[in-house]
C-alpha cells in the first residue's frame, strides 16, 4: 500500500510483526531508549513526511512507560510532517477505570470487537458447542453474553454476586440452568482471575459438564496462573492483545486467539477510507 508507514512500540513486537506481515509491509525503523533519568527517548529512523502513519502499542507490561512512549512517537511523527497519525491500541490502558467514555478524545475513535473471533473459535474448537451455555461471571457482562448466545443460538446465564452486609464475603448466585451443558464463561478481561475461578467452581457444582473461559484481554497478574492451574477449566482462551508466551509456559490451559488479521484489516480499511463496521461481525479471511 502506498503512502503508509507502520511502526511498533516496544510493548508487543510480535503482534506488530504479525500485522505488518498480513499487510505485506515492513515495520518502520524506530529506536526507543531511556535517558539516565528514566525519561523515554524515541528516534524515528525514516522519513514520514506526507505519509499515513500507524503506531501499534498495547496497554500492557510497563503500562505508564508504554503509554508515554506512544505519545512521544505520535508527537515525533506529527512534527516530522506526517499527513495523519493513527494509534492502534490492542489493549486500551486505564480502561478498567472507565475513563475511555468520559471525554478523553475529541478525535474519531473506532472500537474493535473480539466477538467474531470468539464465535469462530467456539465453533471450531468446542465440538459440543450446540449444547453449550454462555455465562457472564458478573451482571455487568450480561449484554456481552446475550450477544454471543444469540449469534450461536444457544442459551445464556449469569452469575450475580450478592453482598449481605459490608465486609462479608460475596455469595455467588447462578441465574440460569447449566446442568448437563458445556459452560463457556465470557469476560472482557481477567487480571488475578479470582472471579472466573470461583465462577468455574460454581458452574461445575451446578451440573455443568465442562467449563471454558474466553477472555478478550488476559492480564494474568499476581496469583492468576496458579489459580487457573488449580481450577477445573478445559481451557482459558485469550486474544493476543497482550503477549502470552511466558504465561503459556507455566499454564498449559491457556490458548490464544490471534487477532492480528482484525487489526490489519482495520488499518487497511482506515487507510483506504472504507468502513470498518464489517469487522464488528466478521473475521477477515
- The count of DSSP E runs of length 2 or more, i.e. the number of strands, is 12
Radius of gyration: 21 Å
Outline: elongated
Secondary structure category:
alpha/beta
Main pleated sheet: 7 strands, mixed
Mean pLDDT: 92
Strand content: 15-25%
Helix/strand order: EHEEEHEHEHEEEHEHEHEH
Major sheet strand order: 8-7-6-9-10-11-12
How many helices? The count is 8
Low-confidence stretches: none
> What level of helicity do the residues show?
25-40%
Please describe the structure with a list of short key phrases separated by commas or semicolons.
transferase; 285 residues; alpha/beta; 25% strand
Tell me about this structure:
This protein has 285 residues and is α/β, with parallel strands linked by helices. Helices cover 31% and strands 25% of the residues. The protein has helices spanning 13-23, 63-79, 115-125, 142-152, 194-205, 224-230, 245-250, 260-271, and strands at residues 4-8, 30-34, 40-44, 52-56, 84-88, 132-136, 155-162, 171-175, 182-190, 210-218, 235-239, 254-257. The strands form three sheets. Strands 8-7-6-9-10-11-12 form a seven-stranded mixed β-sheet. It has a three-stranded parallel β-sheet with strand order 1-4-5, with helices on both faces. A two-stranded antiparallel sheet has the order 2-3. Helix 1 (13-23) packs across helix 8 (260-271). The longest helix has 17 residues, at 63-79. It starts with a strand and ends in a 14-residue tail after the last helix. The model has no long low-confidence stretch (mean pLDDT 92). Pathway: Metabolic intermediate biosynthesis; 5-phospho-alpha-D-ribose 1-diphosphate biosynthesis; 5-phospho-alpha-D-ribose 1-diphosphate from D-ribose 5-phosphate (route I): step 1/1. This is ribose-phosphate diphosphokinase. Keywords: ATP-binding, Kinase, Magnesium, Metal-binding, Nucleotide biosynthesis, Nucleotide-binding, Transferase. It holds the Pfam family Pribosyltran_N. It comes from Cricetulus griseus (Chinese hamster).
